[in-house]
Amino acid sequence: MHSDKRSREFYILAAFFAVFVLFLYGPLSAILILSFQGPNGGLTFPLNGVSLHWFFNLFETQAVGDFGGSFQRSLTLGLMVMVTTVLVSLLAGLAFRRKFIGATPLFYLSVASLVVPSIIVSLGIGVVFQQVGFQPSWYSSAFGAHLTWTLPFGVLIMFAVFNRFSPSYEEAARDLGASAWQTFRHVLLPMIAPSLIGVGLFGFSLSYDEFARTLMTAGTFNTLPLEIYGMTTNVTTPVLYALGTVTTVFSFLVIGGTLALIIAVNRRRARS
């Protein structure tokens, strides 16, 4: 009787998860399939032939859209945001391990941008840059706008990591004569390395596909999300789907590479 009840609960949860996955990846699978349209294919089903024509078309000169430039800008911006998010989050996590005056207001101030609508943040930063005489651009104002989105998440993750971290390891290292830098380099950093990699991936992924906070701050040149949005009103060929497929595959490769790096770090730490 009890076993039958567990079986029913299992199948119900499995069915719910299957529906969730279908809802999540169903639209993505449609774009993936339509990107393999033949040369005379359109934007809807059914497929008119099957080919890689539109993928090769991505690397040709386009009447509308700058795929290569926008991808390079998004990649560069994502890497800049990733490095900054990791460094600032790590330093904030180390600083908040000790009590200091103003710690609580500073904490709430650092995460306050999460509750502000993204488009308002983008508009505010764009207006401030124009008022002080600077031209908004993807590498300055958009960079700052993205940090208002990635830093709170990175800081919260590092707070959770350090709250579970026992200081006894550092105390043992100091008892053995290690300096503060040696303790950080050889004890603390290897133990929190997987979490730092996760913060970096989180920062990169949030920045790479951010649209709202980039809309008013990117300046003259578009990032990839802005370029794709602009193409939806001009491009009437499956090349747009091919671009979506390529960027999705790139995102999964980044995630897979990060997971492989975390596994390698954990194995190395286990051997040590």
Automatic annotation (TrEMBL):
Cite the ABC transmembrane type-1 domain residue spans from the record: 71-264
List residues traversing the bilayer: 12-36, 75-94, 106-129, 149-166, 187-208, 239-265
The UniProt entry, under Gene3D superfamilies, shows: MetI-like
Task: Please state where this protein is localized.
Answer: Cell membrane
Instruction: Indicate the principal place this protein occupies in or around the cell.
Output: membrane
What is stated as this protein's family in its record?
Belongs to the binding-protein-dependent transport system permease family. CysTW subfamily.
* PANTHER family for the chain: PUTRESCINE TRANSPORT SYSTEM PERMEASE PROTEIN POTI (PTHR43848:SF2)
This one is known as ABC transporter permease
Question: Which organism is this entry from?
Answer: Rhizobium oryzicola
